[in-house]
């Protein structure tokens, strides 16, 4: 994956954050990886809110669904209503296999909905596939 592409991971679970970081290493992704622990924190990082906003602006968001303060679906609603941020590609990365979450996510134009695999090896593969898919879309 083009290493200039910055990625924002929005995830409340520390172990899941570590797994993403490890899977990035395993895939030799060298992309800037920002981390927010919930939707509110992510919006603050993206908009700046008094501080400097994330720079470079992330082109990809990896989004968990179940989080405290602001979950993934509510975050997506806010993101898609923001003129400057609405075009960021979002991949949902979740354990939620609820149809209502999937439908809501796709209605808010997510690029993909990835169920967190049980094993770390499969998780590395899933992120590798995401990287390959992203490269293909950029051509
Ligand atoms: Mg979570």
User: In the CATH hierarchy, what is the superfamily?
Assistant: Response regulator
Q: Order of strands across the biggest sheet?
A: 2-1-3-4-5
Structural class: alpha/beta
CATH architecture annotation = 3-Layer(aba) Sandwich
The total of beta strands comes to 5
CATH topology: Rossmann fold
Low-confidence stretches: none
Question: Explain this structure to me?
Answer:
This protein has 139 residues and is an alpha/beta fold. It has a single domain (7-134), classed as Rossmann fold. Helix content is 42%, strand content 16%. It has five helices and five strands. Strands 2-1-3-4-5 form a five-stranded parallel β-sheet, sandwiched between helices. Strand 4 (89-94), helix 4 and strand 5 form a beta-alpha-beta unit. Helix 1 crosses helix 5 (120-138) and helix 2 packs parallel to helix 3 (72-80). The longest helix has 19 residues, at 120-138. It is globular and about 40 Å long. It starts with 6 loop residues before the first strand and ends with a helix. It binds magnesium ion. Magnesium ion binds at residues 12-13, 64, 66-67.
Summarize the structure.
By secondary structure, this protein is an alpha/beta fold. The chain is built from five helices and five strands.
SSE blueprint and pairings:
Blueprint: E1 7-10, H1 14-26, E2 33-36, H2 39-47, E3 60-63, H3 72-80, E4 89-94, H4 99-107, E5 112-115, H5 120-138
Parallel strand pairs: 1-2, 1-3, 3-4, 4-5
Helix pairs in contact: 1-5, 2-3
Magnesium ion binds at residues 12-13, 64, 66-67.
């Amino acid at each position: 994956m083009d290493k200039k592409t910055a990625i924002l991971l929005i995830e409340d679970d520390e172990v899941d954050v570590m797994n993403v970081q490890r899977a990035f290493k395993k895939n030799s992704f060298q992309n800037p990886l920002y981390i927010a622990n919930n939707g509110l924190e992510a919006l603050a990082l993206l908009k700046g809110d008094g501080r400097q906003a994330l720079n470079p602006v992330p082109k990809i968001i990896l989004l968990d669904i179940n989080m405290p303060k602001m979950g993934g679906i509510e975050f997506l609603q806010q993101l898609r209503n923001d003129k400057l941020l609405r075009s960021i590609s979002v991949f949902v990365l979740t354990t939620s296999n609820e149809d209502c979450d999937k439908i809501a996510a796709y209605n808010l134009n997510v690029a993909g909905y990835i169920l967190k695999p049980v094993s770390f090896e499969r998780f590395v593969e899933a992120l590798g596939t995401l990287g390959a898919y992203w490269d293909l879309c950029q051509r």
